[in-house]
Amino acid sequence: MKRKTILPLFIAITMSVFTWGQQNPLLYKIFDKNGKSIRWEKVLKKADEAEVVFFGEYHDDPVIHYLQLQLLHHLVESEEKLALGLEMFEWQDAELLNAYMNGKIDQKTFTSEAKSLWPNYRTDYSPMVELAKRKGVAVFASNVPRAWASAVFKGGFEALDSIYSELKQYLPPLPIPYESQLPGYRNMLKMAHGHGGENLPKAQALKDASMAWSVVQHLEKGFKILHLNGTYHTNNFEGIIWYLEKYRPKTRYFTIAMVRQADVRSLKRDFRGLADVIIAVPDDMIRTH
């Protein structure tokens, strides 16, 4: 090829790639904990090897919810005894959820009577619950009642002693272990600028411990588990993971975190190490609520 034709060809190719990038923006990109780009197939392989998969999310992100649904599709086909655990359901709805999953009540009754149903349940979580229902996958509420977390926020862990409810059967053994120096809890205090005092991270710890305990109870029944939770509950292998290691040491777990970036082509250094796998989503992605 003559030299004078190379430059126009290069410019044409470059413009073509740029135009393709504008027309086909990256919706997400997947990285390992060191920031190396990996394929979705590797995520599936790692999920297959674990006893429990924690898929961290921002609750309003449609891309992550779609990927959670795809992972659930995969696990449904590869696992004989699978359970889907949801931070989005609190224990006061556990029996109602079981009744719906077992066909004892219809969807309208379930959604109208559930007390902890989130505003974006229909768009973001119902597709996964309905897939689980069709495929006979167990679904369990893993989160402590919000009022209990509020009580701990106001009065510390001691507030749990004054709660009289049959739902206390779901709580982990009291007193709940607590490490105030975990970076995630310290950062929570820092971001709150002192508001809420030392009880603010304790309320978070109650949720972390309760979700970990809920997961452990289902692991002990022989279930493989996919658990959906806010990514901050498992980031840096703290939160739920810290309690899981307390309650069931040597559990084989796999963590997925999500982050938002202006450019998802490479992972920001600050996000490396958040989880076994980190999924970057554009920070201007449309949100569901």
Automatic annotation (TrEMBL):
It holds the Pfam family Cofac_haem_bdg. Gene3D superfamilies: 3.40.50.11550. InterPro entries: Cofac_haem-bd_dom (IPR007314). Residues 44-244 form the Haem-binding uptake Tiki superfamily ChaN domain. This is Haem-binding uptake Tiki superfamily ChaN domain-containing protein. The gene is phuW.
